[in-house]
Each structure stands twice: as structure tokens, then as C-alpha cells.
Amino acid sequence: MIQTISYTSLAxxxxxxxxxxxxxxxxxxxxxxxxxxxxxxxxxxxxxxxQLRWALCFADSYYFAVAFMALSHSxxxxxxxxxxxxxxxxxxxxxxxxxLHDEAVATIVGTPSLALPFTGAANTKFNTSEFQALDLxxxxxxxxxxxxxxxxxxxxxxxxxxxxxxxxxxxLWGEQLLGAKITSTVSHQHIYGLLFRILWPLCSxxxxxxQDLTYPEQVMAQASADTTLISSPALxxxxxxxxxxxxxxxxxxxxxxxxxxxxxxxxxxxxxxPVEVFGSxxxxxIGYRQQHETTTPWQLFPCHQVMLxxxxxxxxxxxxIDADTxxxxxxxxxxxxxxxxxxxxxxxxxxKIEEKRISLVxxxxxxxxxxxxxxxAVLPLDEGHRLVLGAVIxxxxxxxxxxxxxxxxxxxxxxxxxLRQWLEPVGIPRRFRATDEIPINSQxxxxxxxxxxxxxx
Length: 457
Known about the structure:
Keywords: Ligase. The protein is of the alpha/beta class. The chain has helices at residues 32-46, 61-73, 86-91, 159-173, 191-204, 216-222, 233-236, 260-270, 360-368, 397-419, 448-453; strands at residues 23-26, 30-31, 53-57, 77-79, 98-102, 113-116, 140-145, 153-158, 181-184, 208-209, 227-231, 250-253, 275-280, 284-290, 298-300, 305-308, 313-318, 322-336, 340-346, 350-353, 356-359, 373-382, 387-395, 431-434.
């Protein structure tokens, strides 16, 4: 049954009067009355606990939502580790005092923990009528981004910035998604999944899936005109061999560049061109677009102010971060009329080889323009006496045929000859590795060390 519920700001979600049978999460059809009860019971317990910094790590999105709201109403600092792996959690153990989790997440030896579902351990009962509006400015959330080194970097944000971004998402797409339910291939442990698959649905009264979709076949099976898919390029690129079944109401993609071919394939399969969202853990969303052409520009979110620094990198003033300060990114851009922009790559992806500045993004784009290559990742390789470029590539069907007919040596030579149309000799990769997929992590970011390892011989 399609339900339509008035939008509520994050501060007041638990205060809203919704029908008890309103659906919060599906895959077991959990209702609003149950959600209120679970949040209130956990809140009563958390208020009795001395720990302030709570790590939140769940496979089940419903329990995650219960824990997030209960921690917020208990005035705790929420820590969101990037994944559930025991070693990754152990690396971050000094960041938190206690781990709140479900049975799918292993605990860390020597670290206090609490598992959901919660059976109730507080003597004091917390009634739903006792919920107060959240003081969003006072509530803090810490997320982690891998950065260029792969080492987790802590990013602290206030819930007021998170709430402002949710308000903007609703103003842009709320009417289009009216009555839709939300399914997802991305984790709620990161900013994109947290916003799009958990908090925005809670504020707007849209039911969300408890479990991730992992395989292309699951994505195809869940398609319906009343469902919105929250996904990433990593999954959408894997739909190339699928056959159309049903449409999605809308598809969102974030976490990395979506190839034009994957965008067009999604439109053919689901009668829906994905909305790509560009941003970062630090900034939240910066811009969005639907990729009608490879040159389709990005549209700034309406509340942003931008300028470029001397290196043509974007400077951002945003209420998602701090409305009174400017945040400097490393994203090189060209500003266009009507608050649009083109991405030109990242300043931290410029390397100097034989005194010449080489843009790794430019080399990747030139490689991807070739008929043989679907996707490319370019990185500098230190060969002791000199620095050269290596390229990890995935091949198109034409590229696979050429590889079979020509062999690696001749194909690599032909690729290098093609690149001479645009690139100086020092900017042309000297070493190539062909793979089925470019190595990425759970956030859809390329794994630098995994790329380097491909050249370890």
C-alpha cells in the first residue's frame, strides 16, 4: 500500500504523529508504532549509561535507524566506522568508548558493546510522549573517509548540517518520490547511504529496505514504479548484460564517476536516467546531474556559493558544512552560467614527470575515449631511476577481440600510438594491466594499493 506522509525535519522526527501502522522498514514490514517503541526503550537505557562516544555498526538498516535516533535523543556522540570488518573496527577502537551493533557484526575483544535487538535493561521507562526536539547544533557525528592514503580520516559533523542537507534533498526530489519506498546497494555507514537510505526516508515517511542489495539480479528483481534505488557506479556498471524487467521510480548514484554507458544502460533498463550526486564526506552533496551527454554539466545545490582559487579548485560556502566559512576542495572545475560547473579532475592527481605536469584524470579520460577501453585507472610508478605511468584498464568487447587477435604487446603499442594524438610522450602510460574490474572499496573508491600490487612484478 502506498503511503503519503508529510515531511518532518530531522529534529522532530520522533515527535510526528503518524498512523501506528505506517511502514518504516520493509522485508519484515516494521511499522511506526514499533519503531517509536524500540527507539524509546533504547533511549531510556542509553540515558543511564556514562559513555559519550558510541560506535554504531549494523548490517540491518532498521536497527541502525533505531540506534541512530536513540543515541541522538540521549545526547551521545555518534561514531560511524566505515565497515563491519573486525580488523577495521579494531583500528578505530580508540575513537569510541562502546560499540552498538547487531548480531551480524563481530565485537572487539576488550571493548564494551551492546547488541540489538534490545531486550530492555533500564528500570526507567521512556515514553514516546517524552521525546523533545533535537538540539541539532549540539549533536555531533564522526564519519571516516579513506583519503588518498587509504588510512581512515575522522570527519566530525554536526547534525544541523546533516538536517539542512536532508531538507534540500526533499525540496529537490520529494514530490517526485512521493509514496515511493527506498531500496539500496550502498551502506548506511557512509554519508551518502546515511542520508539517502536512512535519514531522508525517516523524515519523509518513506519505507526503506532493512538489507542491502548485493547482486545485479537482486537489483533487477526489486525494480518497480513505486521503488527508488540508492546505488553507486560499482553496481550500475554490472548491469550491462541484464534484460529490462520493470522501471524504477528514480535511481540515485554517488561515490565515484558514473560512465556514460552505464547511465544510458540504466535508462534503457529502468526507463530512468540516474541522478548522479557529487560530493564528499567532508562537504556533503555539492552538485547533481542526469548524464544525457558525456558533457552534461553539474548543477550546484541551490544553497551553495562557490568560487575558484588560483589552481582553479572549487571553494565552497555551504550550510551543509558551515554557512559562515569557505571550504577549499581539491576539485578542479570550470564554472558555468546558471550555477553549473564542469569537473576537470583533482589537483592532488597531478604528477610531475621529467619536469612536466601530468593530469592523471586527463590520461584516464583519453584512454576511456578509445574504442578498446571501457574504464581506466592511471597511477605513477616509481621504477627506481625514473617515474612512469601505469594504466589499469577494463576492455570493451572490441578491446577483448583486439587482445585475442593482436596479443598484449601489440595492443599496448597500438593504445600508446592512439594516445599520441593528445598526450606528450611522458604522459603516455608505459605499463598496462587489463582486469575484469577496477579494484574499489565499499565506498566505491579506487583502492590505490590494490592497483599498485597489479604492477608488483
